[in-house]
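Collaborator request, handled under Task 6.
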Amino acid sequence: MAHKDYVARGRNPKTPPEPEKRSLPWVRIVVTLALLFGFGYFLWSINDKAEDPVHKKASTKSEQVDPLPDAPEEEWEFIKTLPEYSVEVDVEEREASEKRYLMQCGSFRKQGQAEELKARIAFQGLEAQVRASDGSSGRWYRVIIGPYESKRLAEKQRHTLQRAKINGCQIWLWNL
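Structure tokens returned to the collaborator:
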């Protein structure tokens, strides 16, 4: 169409013409119905094949199917023997070691800082001591816990302190 035709019909020459609206053709309706009918036939045809052949035989020949046997009663042997069972273990007694362990958790110039750490340790259920020691660089206040008879016990209490964010505790061997 030419420019004059657009103007003659009352349209703006810059806009394209509107496409014609089509109604739904009868071919699409027929194809859709055929597909739905085919799907329904497919579902109906597999319905017969879906039955389990074992159950089909059982329903027709109920005389030949053996019923399941009764479950046997379980008898646990350990229930009777456990109360009578005892074990004896020979344990060698370890001699008391002369080794002792101390744990030092801090060393401070001011006694107030040492007392503050001692109080934090006391909140964890452990008893600490503040000991003053004089050295070449002056007086120091050490916070110590112990003595312990085994290093294992000292390690256990050091882990308790670490969970409370009291870090830096060192375990020292202390000979009597």
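The cover message to the collaborator said: "The radius of gyration is 47 Å. Residues 104-175 form a domain with the Alpha-Beta Plaits fold (CATH 3.30.70.1070). Please let us know whether this matches your experimental observations."
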